[in-house]
Amino acid sequence: MHGLIVIDVQNDFCPGGALAVPEGDAIVPLINGMMNAFDAVILTQDWHPAGHSSFASSHPGAAPFELIQMPYGPQVLWPDHCVQNTRGAKFHPDLVTDADLIIRKGFRAGIDSYSGFFENDKTTPTGLDGYLRNRGIDRLTLVGLATDFCVHYSAVDAARLGYDVTVQMNACRAIDLDGSLQAAIDAMRAAGVKLT
Ligand code: VGL
Ligand code: ZN
Q: Which ipTM was obtained for this model?
């Protein structure tokens, strides 16, 4: 069984949003057109409380895109984005959202979650793995935003969990901070993720 995982196609990651990914909205028609070819479609939604610890505004003196050390490891600080129940956290208005499952992540104030599978401590599960296994889904295609953060971490975790994982790169867009896109490509390849 083959699942499509659509990562974080939300207003704040699209042009005009708080953490806009260049051309983030350009992938929406392509993703909508892919959905019918899969046994299941799962959407992830970045869903932070106001004052989340991944926001630079929560750390006096810090600026967005700085790296800090958190108890669970290094963490990039972001502009406030995808705050629960705001317009920025909603899916892009053209995205087809009648998916089998919508999984929210990043809702704990003290820990970020790039991956759809584990939070950034690499141990707290989101429950997505259990859902997919329970449904007999063993192959995954990942698309969405951003290639070098949430798509990257989700793909690597999925490969480590034993799924057959493909990232369809033309249906993804990257933030690309200091070479993060190339690093993500290298890490995904090393984990056995197929990039098409
Ligand atoms: C993401 C940074 C912070 C993403 C989410 O969806 O790639 N990036 N939160
Ligand atoms: Zn986030």
A: 0.98
